[in-house]
Amino acid sequence: MVKRIDYQIEKYVFSDIGESPRITRQWAEVAGECLQQKAGSEERLRIALLNVDYVTSFELPFRLLLIRSPQLIDRLREELSINQKSVTINGKNRGCVYSLTTDLSKAPDSFRYRFSNRIQRVEPSGPTAAPYLEIAKQTKEPRERLRLALASGLEINALDGLFWLSIQRIAADVSVLRKAGMVIVTSEIEVFDTLTETVRRISSYRLKA
User: What is the reported pTM?
Assistant: First the structure.
């Protein structure tokens, strides 16, 4: 039987500090439509692209709980005319704006995001979020958080990475740590979250015993 983890979202606030009321309203409408439809990952992305003036590569995983945003964008290019431009995220990171609008001049060239949450991570044995919160307090560097979490014996999936480690592309960071000598094994788990109200199977990582 595949292991299941439930993420019970009690508080979830993610936004751009300079976000316009229009964009805020559009994202609220997207969240409502996705929840109503219990939309899968690709459909959540499609709904966002069709209803928000522009979206950024950084916000997609957080807003829509997408695990492989670049791959999903490429897949949707076959049916939608997606335009993009490079932007700066949080003062230092490079990212992209995606939009179905040809003129991207109205989209900002830089974004600064804030994120706060209160989430219960529940396994069959009970709540298990505390160790992840402790790791997050030890360092702000995402990959180092992942290394510490694995070294401490935790099993980590993409949602753990988003919620507590500030990691958007966990598979890429796992690859770097493997090249550095960590023996990391992959398994498959089932996850459910109350933000999207969907159940899906995703990869999970831990150090080899």
Answer: 0.91
H/E stretch holding 12 reads strand 4-16
pLDDT of residue 1: 55
pLDDT at 127: 87
DSSP 53: S
pLDDT at 166 over 60: yes
46, two tokens: 């499609």
Strand, coil or helix: 3: coil
Question: What confidence tier does 155 reach under pLDDT thresholds 50, 70, 90?
Answer: very high
Contact 49, 26 (CB under 8 A): no
b or e along 34-66 (b: 16 or more beta carbons within 10 Å of the residue's beta carbon)? beeeebebebbbbbbbeebebbbbbbbbbbbbb
- CB proximity list for 142: less than 8 A, separation 6 or greater: 161, 165, 166, 167, 173
Note the residue count of the chain.
Answer: 209
End-to-end CA distance of the chain: 21
Q: Of the candidates 63, 68, 97, which has an alpha carbon nearest to the alpha carbon of residue 83?
A: 97
Triad 23, 192, 70: Cα angle to 5°: 50
State the Cα–Cα distance between residues 148 and 182, nearest whole angstrom.
11
